[in-house]
Amino acid sequence: xxxxxxxxxxxxxxxxxxTKGIGKAIVEALLGEGANVSYCARSIRGDEFASLANDAxxxxxxxxxxxxxxxxxxxxxxVEVGAQEFAASFAVEASCESWQRSFQADILGLIALIDTAxxxxxxxxxxxxxxxxxxxxxxxxxxxxxxxxPYSTLKRAQATLAKDYARKLGPLGVRINTVVPGAxxxxxxxxxxGTWQPSRFEEAKKTKPEFLRGMLDCIPxxxxxxxxxxxxxxxxxxxxxxxxxSGTNLIVDGGSSIAF
Length: 260
Fold this sequence. Notes:
Order of helices and strands: EHEEHHEHEEEHHHE
Number of domains: 2
Distance between the termini: 25 Å
């Protein structure tokens, strides 16, 4: 049997709270796997891992910095400096600004939409008023860094928000449900100036074919979904056929969520 390898040797990892408790144990484990580590804490000596953190030439593999984790500007500065250490790259999945933008759109925008629509739904002549929120399976199973961060977090929040509204709006005669698409093969679009803008899925076909093959291997129905699959689910939930369904998440993923 081959020995386990984390394949972290030579990589660069940044750890907050790295001088005690769980943070310290994480730094030690990473150094044990051959990684280079930038770590921070409120109070730093700088030699906390000297016995573990030198390479063959005696150069340090762990660099500590005193940082108040509650100070956003200090954290930003630490990350900027840390990105240059060890001549390694460091990917920040989402800035504070992108979280704020996503929250404004995905949560506050959704709340405003539902609150504005509710009085009109109540006064409509239909006996079955319904709202459908389109979330994403990424909010329930964030399996890849490309869909982590604000996107996955706020997509889960949307589904939770919909359940809360289902409880509140039910007595008013308004149903609300969530459609949760999995891997959907989307198409690009023609922009107003006539140029073609490919979808992220189309771009991934060219740049990340192995990633897409791995995703496909996790789908029991052995195909990616399309926009029509999601639309059909939404139409069902909006229709009187679903008149006794409220507060549910309808997963449209070809069975991928049962593959794990």
